[in-house]
């Protein structure tokens, strides 16, 4: 689940994607004739902006967990919604990744991109901090601009892998952490929220977040259904496992979660021509390529760039086989991570999901994308949901209690 940068050192995708599959804005349909009616909307925190960083995996996962806290604690006042620090997670994830990269002599993906499992493991091992305690913005900009940081960290670990002393000292890890401290700032050991002092571990526990409460789900035929497998993409560097469900059952999980007030963390492909800068995701075809910042990379840079058919295009039918083909031939990749929080339908009765993005107040719907059922069926790489959101029959098949 990642978003690659055009710079070799500034990678940014959510599990493995290729810029060659991204479509230019000129080939993308415009959403001007779509009329949406909201059917279900679950509370979410405000839209954030990952800006020039490859951290969609973290923004989307934390948005998902913020909604989990809102639901579990029955928070109705939006001013009391939690706001978790993305860069606290990113900083600790990079630390762990560097150690594994060196242990594997550099034979591991090392970039800004990662996956939802990374977030849960960091929270398990390092706890959680609010944005008020750690912003991670120590280099003079309001929003993340991390190309230089990513390049510095990659160059450093590549130098360590060469092992110029023929034996590693323990100091290399301190040096790596020192680079991150310089760019992101020192992590506070304790902090105060609403007059209460916390450590990262005690804050995680106070928020009621237990990584064991969540399940990772995918749907591919190259592994047996109802078993767990490691999704074979570069950014899944922790080798996190996902439960493999048939396509219809994966979709059943998403619908069941939303109908019962649970949101869904979504990782998948946004290089399709039907994924537009106007806040639309539909399954149509086009040719071309693009590059640029995270948002510009996938949906174009200018508001006047997208000039598509004003009619609502017909969408392709998605099958388990067509979905597998998309994954096998690299048309379905780990471009991006977002947060599904509701249901809608257009004027033709076609179902859509309300999806919170991390590109700030972008698009026609101010940070929300309407992604069709067909698009989600075809382009989902994996989802994460609360175990309580699973339908009973699927829980039983997986042996989850």
Throw out a few tags for this protein.
401 residues; alpha+beta; ten-stranded mixed sheet; two-stranded antiparallel ribbon; globular
Tell me what you see in this structure:
- With 401 residues, this protein is of the alpha+beta class.
- Helices cover 31% and strands 15% of the residues.
- It has helices at residues 56-72, 86-103, 116-126, 147-161, 171-184, 200-206, 247-259, 294-299, 320-328, 373-379, 392-398; strands spanning 2-3, 37-41, 191-193, 196-198, 214-218, 228-230, 241-244, 264-268, 280-281, 336-345, 351-356, 368-372, 380-386.
- Strands 2, 5, 6, 7, 8, 9, 10, 11, 12 and 13 form a ten-stranded mixed beta sheet that branches. Strands 3-4 form a two-stranded antiparallel ribbon.
- A hairpin with a 5-residue loop joins strand 10 (336-345) and strand 11.
- Helix 2 packs across helix 3 (116-126), helix 2 packs parallel to helix 4 and helix 4 packs antiparallel against helix 5 (171-184).
- Residues 3-27, 286-293 and 301-309 have low confidence and may be disordered.
What is the count of DSSP helices, taking H or I runs of 4+ residues? 11
Percent of residues in beta strands: 5-15%
- Radius of gyration, in Å, reads 20 Å
What overall form do the CA principal axes indicate?
A: globular
Which parts are unreliable, with pLDDT below 50 for 5 consecutive residues or more? Answer: 3-27, 286-293, 301-309
Whole-number mean pLDDT: 89
Instruction: Give me the secondary-structure category.
Output: alpha+beta
Give the SSE order as H and E letters. EEHHHHHEEHEEEHEEHHEEEHEH
| Tally of strands | 13
Biggest beta-sheet profile: 10 strands, mixed
What is the terminal separation in angstroms? 28 Å
Helix content, binned percent: 25-40%
